[in-house]
Amino acid sequence: MIFKPTDNLDKAFRAMRAFMVLIVIGSLSVSMYALYQNAVLSARMQDRVYILSNGKAAEVFSSSRKENVAVEARDHISRFHQLFFSLDPDEKAIASTIKKALYLADGSAKKQYDDLVESGYIAGVISGNVSQEVTIDSVQVSVTTAPYLFRCYATVQIIRSTSIVIRNLITHGQLRNTARSDNNPHGFLIEKWETIENRDIKIENR
């Protein structure tokens, strides 16, 4: 009988110790789960970007360049052709758009522009009050390996005082990755650019 109180005390101590161990394990489990959920939430928040449009905040989702490389490449090519081939009968306007276009391409584009200047084409646009507009029909680009080969199909409309000339335009070249900047937001550079077809397909009298 003399040892029973001691036995009861020992059992109570072991029970209390087991209870405390369970509490510690439970607390650690809850803490680890909370940390995991916080990490997941932080990762999700990093993929969200808010932009201000017309005084309203709009949520957009970011994605890796690899996921959007084909889309960005096509937009880069389209933008370049729109800048290069859209001309107005104004010397400063032409210089401004060509300057923007040449940020997107290498010396092959500069050479084509110099050829247009030397042939008198640019001077004819200015003196003849000619407007030139380009419509991109399609852009084919292979993004499997860099540099990315592309081909652009477009239609050029040349508006003169007496006529409208429609031309079929096909160019090709390749893209290489470069640093993004304000002048080159997609971070591509067009190389070895060539015009392989630029022929009249329709002439309308005005």
TrEMBL record:
Q: Which domain of life is it from?
A: Bacteria
The protein's matches in InterPro entries, at most eight in alphabetical order, are given as: Conjug_transposon_TraK
Spans through the membrane = 15-36
**Keyword set for this entry?**
Membrane, Transmembrane, Transmembrane helix
Q: What's the protein here called?
A: Bacteroides conjugative transposon TraK protein
